[in-house]
Amino acid sequence: MVSVAILGAAGGIGQPLSLLMKLNAGVTKLHLYDIVNVPGVAADISHVATNAEVQSFLGAGQLAAAVTKIDLAIIPAGVPRKPGMTRDDLFKINAGIVKTLVEAIAAHSPQAFIAVISNPVNSTVPIAAEVLKAKGVFDPRRLFGVTTLDVVRASRFARDLRPGVDAAALRVPVVGGHSGTTIVPLLSLASTRLGLSDEETEELTTRIQFGGDEVVKAKDGAGSATLSMAYAGARFADSLIRAINGDAVVEPAFIALAADPDGAKEVRGLGAGDLDYFAVPVELGPRGVQRIAQLGGAPTAFERKAIAVAAEALAANIKTGAAFVAGA
Ligand code: NAD
Ligand code: LMR
């Protein structure tokens, strides 16, 4: 039984994610925090007939209370992209938001699991880690950048090419990071053999890497993925809650590789080099990252090349995040 805080709960992701977490039988307390509109969201969701107790927290003055005695903080706070923007363009605003929120978590629930949704994930996760390190409470097993939407897209887009595939059951490992070419789907290691030609592999890889742009373009200035992200975030949170309760569950996440030094060696061998963070399939357990999951085979030459491209961009993103805290 788990107490969950959603920080940014009144937003496009925050609202449906809050609803989905209210429906999760593993959640006993749901703290909804935002700087606007959250009393209405919380009142509305609190009428749903499940046992979780919902409480609203509005504005910086209530942040400490929002993150006190919680087991899991999910962070979708911050600005989304508009057409023409990259996720890195969000850094200026979202870096400071994530830093402030993680400082409060470190002070009031230092043992909490933290799941960061706010973009750019490749940099906001290192920001969170540096804040936790500075406060002396960093446990790499408990910090996650949520990359579930990338594997959700991989499963669904694969079905568009192979209509016989069950999108809900198909698992495609996606490694690297969460933006453009840092997203590397390992289609050759999908749980169902897809039998893709080289051309199909390239096409599907690019679609997965730039799936977020499809939504940003279609929303035409009104934001980025919210509903599919709420689904993905709720799936990640449910997996973590089940793992806390003793189930063996595998989900992807962008993690600090220090969480599993043995597994990290294999990931480095794939081309992650000396990076400190990488998105990988993770076996979750009661303490968070139990170990980095086996990929079940060797990536192809095409996939290894894509990992090398991802690693170069990721190194810069990670450095930017860490430097933000060091220089603050
Ligand atoms: P949104 O603008 O609809 O909602 C963001 C919410 O954050 C708003 O309610 C806002 O009031 C709140 N907020 C702003 N500053 C805050 C603060 N200091 N403390 C608490 N709350 C604060 O945006 P959205 O569509 O929900 O997207 C949120 C973030 O999630 C964006 O950065 C977006 O890029 C990211 N995102 C990530 C993924 C992923 O796969 N990881 C997917 C989709 C979106
Ligand atoms: C996504 O992948 O949909 C999110 O990271 C939002 C975005 O900016 O594309």
The amount of beta strand, in percent, is 15-25%
Query: For this structure, what is the CATH class of the largest domain?
Result: Alpha Beta
Structural class: alpha/beta
Bound molecules: nicotinamide-adenine-dinucleotide, (2S)-2-hydroxybutanedioic acid
When the domains are counted, the total is 2
- Please tell me the CATH architecture of the largest domain by its name: Alpha-Beta Complex
Helix-strand pattern: EHEHEHEHEHEHEEHHHEHEEH
Please bin the fraction of helical residues: 40-55%
Number of strands: 11
Structure explained in plain terms:
With 328 residues, the protein is α/β, with parallel strands linked by helices. The chain has eleven helices and eleven strands. The strands form three sheets. A six-stranded parallel sheet has the order 3-2-1-4-5-6, sandwiched between helices. Helix 1 (14-22) runs parallel beside helix 9 (227-244). The protein is globular, with a radius of gyration of 19 Å. 51% of the residues are buried. The mean pLDDT is 97. Bound molecules: nicotinamide-adenine-dinucleotide and (2S)-2-hydroxybutanedioic acid. (2S)-2-hydroxybutanedioic acid (LMR) is lined by residues 81, 87, 119, 149, 212, 215-216, 224-225.
